[in-house]
Write a structure and sequence with these properties.
This protein is of the alpha/beta class. The chain has one domain: TIM Barrel, CATH 3.20.20. It is about 40% helix and about 20% strand. It is built from 9 helices and 8 strands. Strands 1-2-3-4-5-6-7-8 form an 8-stranded parallel β-sheet. The longest helix is centred in the middle third of the chain and has 18 residues. The protein is globular and about 45 Å long.
Amino acid sequence: MTELFDTHTHINTEAFFGKEDETIDRARELDVTRLTVVGFDLPTIKRAIELADHYDNVWAIVGWHPTESYAYNQTIEAFLIEQLQHPKVVAMGEMGLDYHWKDSTREEQDRVFRRQLAIAREMNLPVTIHNRDATADCYKVLKEERVFETGGIMHSFNGDPEFADRFIDLDMYLSFSGVVTFKNAPEVRASAKIVPSNRYLVETDCPYLAPVPYRGKQNEPAYTHYVAKQLAETRDISYDQVGKETTANAMRLFRI
């Protein structure tokens, strides 16, 4: 049996309230046997921990989203550090840079990003990185902050093969979402083709970024299946091999 690990979900958001059991059941029907729930602000972090506690096959990732950088303070940092010690928290994030939305200034984002990377180093946790319209700056910060000491994930990787190689050189994994199925994303498929077999992951980022054939609709963990199918086609390997490789990579990175 093929097994897939959805390494980035937001089933801790309103779209899934009261529907978690059926969502996880549908995922299993399409081979998705494990998943992480990513918290990015106070309510979603608390809910991520609750879900990880409730389900054996769910783990939590907690951090502070770049668009929320303006609100980051010592109280939030103390809360984050406390939650990061929970036994089912396997990484810190999502953190990073987002130049699309203007909620937080670039200076605020840079400061909070670097601070979280320092905490992750101190706690020896891998990181999950959000990057939107900021690839060069994101790479610069990760390199300067020695992300290779902890490793981590370029979540929903959307870069070209050149940047794929550069992030892999920093000991990062590339996680592919529904974007890899989009017709207008040939550079993402080009990156998916060249990433080493021990450096790629699959994810949904649900409820966002639903893959073809559900593009434009609400995404859910089950649809990791379609991401894996596209990766199998792109890399010219079997669907089962994609499952074996990406699940092994996730288990190794998260130390499960």
